Amino acid sequence: MELYYERPYDFEFEAKVVEIADNYVVLDRTLFYPVGGGQPSDTGYLSDVRVVNVEKRDKILHFLAEKPTFNVGDVINGKIDRERRLKIMRIHTALHLLTNICDYMLGDIEHVGSGMSEEKGHIDIYYPPRVKPDLRQKITTDVNRIIQEGAEVNTWFDGETRYVKIGDNDALLCGGTHVGNVKEIGEVKLKRINVGRGKDRLEVTITE
Q1: Where are the domains of the chain?
Q2: pTM of the model
């Protein structure tokens, strides 16, 4: 059972161990978000054993730093790295807000990539006129204005497809975790990087 969608602000849980392999554990439910869609996985602990990565295949695999001290059938405690989860949620939501603003300001652009860590995130766009310094500043100002004003962030499933919608902006496809209101993001700084052939990378960092 995937608990991270309904409980993104929860950081501790109990679960039953259903499988133990050489370097991973499978639980009957989990708060650990698995890597996917450009978002890195959660890290943390299962009992006293460090979780270093989480992947979703036909089931969710929790990769451990060392051999577990528990057995199949045990009910154990899980603990998410709180600060890492919150930073990623803030950055991921900022990237979607940035995408909305770019779509509105720049018109017919092609989104060609994205990625994030707990330190920063980026979107790559195909925009031959290029995002010059004055335009970059205008985008940054608009993103920070909306953050300061506040807007609710809603997520939902339509069948197997998950969406995120910030305020009155267009809904976007997304399978990641997000803050409940853009005010939680904090001030955004935007850097433009030329990645060639009409493509610009817009890199986002956020203040503490």
Answers
A1: 12-80, 85-206
A2: 0.94
